[in-house]
Design a protein that fits this description.
With 330 residues, the protein is of the alpha/beta class. It has two domains: 174 residues, NAD(P)-binding Rossmann-like Domain (Rossmann fold, 3-Layer(aba) Sandwich), CATH 3.40.50; 138 residues, Orthogonal Bundle (N-(1-d-carboxylethyl)-l-norvaline Dehydrogenase, domain 2), CATH 1.10.1040.10. It is built from 15 helices and eight strands. The protein has an eight-stranded mixed sheet, sandwiched between helices. Helix 1 links the parallel strand 1 and strand 2.
């Protein structure tokens, strides 16, 4: 079985390496010619996953159509804001029986579509799986024990994804709640930026615990409104990923929040980074989606004001704390 990973950032590279180490032919597609040369010549991706030696069985290419032409499984890991364009450009070459796995996390800004929805729209008639959960790419590549979720309405497709990625160090669970798994993976990035803001302001562990807990409540509230199961948010793709991304030093989103909390303008923070902090993009789409559905998400709203309406972070926190008192379960 030939497997292709589309997107050679840290996470895409780690997943492609995981497949190759499992003994299956794996191809990694990248836009960047230097990344392809590095993978093929030195078994490295110095640009996006520095310090990790990749499997010699992993090859890379810049030719997307050629890469996906014979692939039985295709894992999409392109950034959320370009995913649709990337999938559309490959559509003519994708097999009708290919299983499509989506490891990108986010909500499309214009349509509010989840990432599996985008792939299903651009490549109709094929099984689609969401892969999500608490997983820093560097730790996966270094074979640290990790557990994630493969969610699909097609049970056989979820099992294919489970078998493709599972190893002694990487455990994959299956389930059917695609909406819950995807929203958990997307919204936790917003909460991670918010947690970083608290840390950048020099606040303590009490506010961090409050933010993570109430952030989970917001994520669940929106998820249920969109048809997800509440219990999904207590699992790996919800609470698991939320805790990791809000507390781990390897979190890009938390790091962006720290710099914002320290007073750096958001434009400067993002301009200095080559990798994408999905939480900033998702803040816009999640805020608009919540408003359109009449779902109250005060932390997301506060982050929107900080990131896009120039509200000072301390003022946003004071506003959150001054909200009307209520029962915790509301």
């Amino acid at each position: 079985m030939t497997s292709v990973v589309v997107g050679a950032g840290a996470w895409g590279t780690a997943l492609a390496d995981l497949i190759a180490r499992g003994g299956q032919p794996a191809v990694l597609w990248a836009r960047e010619e230097d990344v392809v040369a590095d993978v093929n010549s030195h078994h490295l991706n110095t640009r996006f996953l520095n310090g990790v030696t990749l499997s010699p069985a992993l090859t890379a290419t810049t030719d997307l159509a050629d890469a996906v032409f014979a692939a039985e499984t295709i894992t999409f890991v392109a950034p959320s804001h370009v995913l649709r364009a990337v999938v559309r450009s490959a559509a003519h070459a994708v097999r009708r029986d290919a299983v499509l796995i989506v490891a990108t996390k986010g909500i499309e800004r214009e349509s509010f579509a989840l990432m599996t929805d985008i792939v299903a729209e651009e490549l109709p008639g094929r099984a689609v799986v969401a892969l999500s959960g608490p997983s820093f790419a560097a730790e996966v590549a270094m074979r640290q024990p990790t557990a994630v979720v493969a969610a699909s309405r097609d049970v056989e497709a979820a099992l294919r994804a489970q078998q493709l990625f599972s190893s002694r160090e990487f455990r994959v669970y299956t389930q059917r709640d695609v909406t819950g798994v995807e929203l958990g993976g997307a919204l936790k990035n917003v909460m991670a930026v918010a947690t970083g803001v608290l840390d950048g302001l020099g606040l303590g562990f009490n506010p961090r615990a409050a933010l993570i807990t109430r952030g989970l409540a917001e994520m669940t509230r929106l998820g249920v409104a969109l048809g997800a199961e509440a219990r999904t948010f207590a699992g790996l793709a919800g609470m698991g990923d939320l805790v990791l991304t809000c507390t781990g030093s390897l979190s890009r989103n938390r790091t962006v929040g720290v710099e914002i909390g320290q007073g750096r303008p958001i434009e400067d923070v993002l301009h200095a980074r080559e990798t994408v902090a999905e939480g900033v993009i998702t803040t816009q789409s999640a805020h608009a989606l919540a408003l359109s559905r009449g779902v109250e998400m005060p932390i997301v709203s506060a982050m929107h004001r900080i990131l896009f309406e120039a509200m000072p972070p301390r003022d946003a926190i004071a506003e959150l704390m001054a909200r009307a008192l209520r029962a915790e379960s509301d």
